[in-house]
Amino acid sequence: MRTARVEGPLSLHPVLATILKRLGLGLITLFFVSIIIFSSINLLPGDFGEAVLGQAATEETVAAFRRELGLDQPAVVRYFDWIGGVVQGDLGTSFSGRASSGIDRSRSVAELIGPRLENTLFLAALTAVIAVPLALFLGITAALWRNTWYDKSASVTTLTTISFPEFFVAYILILLLGTLWPVFPSLANVQEDMTLGQRVYASILPALTLTLVIVAHMMRMTRAAIINLLASPYIEMARLKGESPRRVILKHALPNAWAPIATVIAFNLAYLVVGVVVVEVVFVYPGVGQLMVDAVSSRDIPVVQACALFFASAYILLNLLADVIGIVTNPRLLHPK
Amino acid sequence: MSNDDYLLDVRGLKVEGWADEKWNPIVKGVDLQLKAGQVMGLIGESGAGKSTLGLAAMGFTKDGCRISGGSAMFDGIDLVKATDEEKRRLWGTQLTYVAQSAAASFNPAHRLVEQTVATTVREGISPMSAAVADAKELYAALQLPNPETIGERYPHQVSGGQLQRVMTAMAMAPRPKLIVFDEPTTALDVTTQVEVLLSMRKAVRDFNTAAIYITHDLAVVAQMADVIKVLRYGEEVEEAETRQMLAEPKEDYTRSLWSVRMLGKEPKASDDIVLEIDGVDAAYGAVKVLHDVSIKLPRGRTVSIVGESGSGKSTTARVVTGLLPPSKGEVRFNGTALPAQLGQRNKDVLRKIQMIYQMADTAMNPRQTVGEIIGRPLEFYHGLKGRAQEKRVIELLEEIDLNEDFYDRLPSELSGGQKQRICIARALAADPEVIICDEVTSALDQIVQEGILKLLMRLQKEKDIAYMFITHDIATVAAISDEIVVMNQGKVVEQGSKTEVLAPPHPEYTQLLLSSVPEMDPDWLTRIEEQRV
Prior knowledge:
The complex is a heterodimer. Chain A is an all-alpha fold. Chain A has two domains: 134 residues, no CATH class; 186 residues, MetI-like (MetI-like fold, Orthogonal Bundle). Chain A is 72% helix and 0% strand. Chain A is built from 15 helices and no strands. The N terminus of chain A is likely disordered. Chain B has two domains: 235 residues, P-loop containing nucleotide triphosphate hydrolases (Rossmann fold, 3-Layer(aba) Sandwich); 230 residues, Rossmann fold (3-Layer(aba) Sandwich), CATH 3.40.50. Chain B is built from 20 helices and 20 strands. Chain B has a six-stranded mixed sheet with strand order 6-7-8-3-9-10, with helices on both faces. In chain B, strands 16-17-18-13-19-20 form a six-stranded mixed sheet, with helices on both faces. Chain B starts with 7 loop residues before the first strand and ends with a helix. The model of chain B has no long low-confidence stretch (mean pLDDT 89). The interface between A and B is medium-sized, with 24 and 34 residues.
């Protein structure tokens, strides 16, 4: 049954319309996440003023400090102050550095997070550049030579690396590549004035650690997504048309397997952005994760909120990207009837 | 006769499948000889090994199967002994395949024309531009609409009948010596089937291609094949020239394949209306699918609703059961209007209208035993528990010609026909006045179909149950109905007693539907072809 479709100058390609709709939904999600972030930070025990100024501060100083930061305002007002600023690109000012001395040495949150963010994204990108092609290659070849010794050893190896805790993998790599055969630095001390080459060299061990942690998941999903399709009638048809095993996988199965593969890749990339605190600590890598942990312990609310909001956006964006890949690789959606 | 006379010479071919931790024979040593340009029909019920044999004749086995003996000489090469590489050179060029479900057998990610010319271009038979030009000619020869542009479409943008023809074009493109057709029209509506059959037969004849045509439908194979081979349990029952096979089959088994078409009952009229659908409109969202449908179902009679897919047959059933409330009109049961919503109907109404589905497999919980499946409505509607329930279940099992041995079995331990019988028993357990049968025999083989239909007819006589029988199979309709309702595009085209509806004159659509049903006469398709010229 065909329904009338409104065709006009305003009608968008359905794929574009879907993407815009998803973007809108992402923004709404982000809005709710911001409320959750704000309220859960309000639930943190202890008084922010006291935590920042120290136990010795007098009651008056604390009260004055709270007034200065606007902490005496009702939560709703503070929330809209904060979110209003964020929308205009102002993440606020860090609490730390405002000691009772009276001299304000505080820095803006953007200034604090900026370089850390760059480092985190750099490490995530470096890891992705190594891990994603590796996982795809291993997954596709494992599907091609399924149930052979190659497939089994790829499975066992990647499962072994994922089974160890991250810090353990990190220390093993430091032991092997930093101490026994000192080819890479065990401290990932990246500086702003480094060249790209130097940066890559400095970050290679954390990147390898993260690669070992995420490759198994992506590789196994790639393999499973392809093998899942091998029982379909169109794969049998391809074989009956005399297609070689390699072409059956690459030309007939893979184009239909991108959606689940993209989802699992997005999931792992999101993890690279938001979940690498342990690895940052081991390699003393100046990333956002460490900054956020420090900010939580010092009750530096604006920094914690900004970090959390950034993590949420990264998560939502990457998942959106996976959805978009799922849509554009599905001819049913890309080429509607 | 020397082997050289045959294009394909299969001797003592055996195929085994891995199941229950061992190799089980599927094809048990079959011979098959085919000359160039000859069409052989392979018929038999499901499980007879006809598809497996057709594929094995190409040297191909599905995963989990293997050829364990015999030979298959094709053009001087033994496909059983040939290496994968040698076979791949033949597949898609000399030997091609047309699958049952075209919708599932085209790769959704590639355009139709790419898939049509893939092997021709890959093997260097002709360059891309020539191959595409040839594909367009084939599309035209197979009477596809817009042959110039249809290849630019993706599989999901084309209807099932058209896809089946594109697949035939794909099989023809490299000008093979042999095509294996595996139930190519089984999934199509009768009116579409005629078109596809006509174009496939014409293409095979024009290019003098040899073919193996696999089907369970005798009437279809009678139109297509020069020779028919009947298979059962992986062995040959008999082989004969088509006309001879139809006129005088030698074996009892072959004769039994005809039997469902011999089934019949005298239609009886009745004015005692148990269920009345009155002026019903219904819609899925904004899409209106039923337009002013009115149907009367007399007590203890069978009203068949026929039509193609999309005609609104199953939607009518959904309205009656309350799954889809109508947007206009009402359904009256014993003279009282039924609440439109399922939730507002009381237990007694629910009990009196039961349903049996096409897929007995998915209509039963695979983790429940037969006893639990039939026991559930007994407890729900009649409050029967424990011993009393068990006793009643066994009575019901006996009514459907099974016995208490089945009580503890799981659905996976039953055959297709037995599963459908359990579904019938479940419906009977409620003591219904009306049973809606939605394509209940479509998934079954002819002989099993006959058993189920006989059972339904006997139960009707004993219990005075009215059936609303939804089907697209005219042979079944002719066999069991008292009255017939013909539906097309959500409207009732014609309704009346069986004798009236099946006898001319017909409204245009009924005429089209009836004339599209293949007849056992091997000249049937030829006559249709001539009428059109």
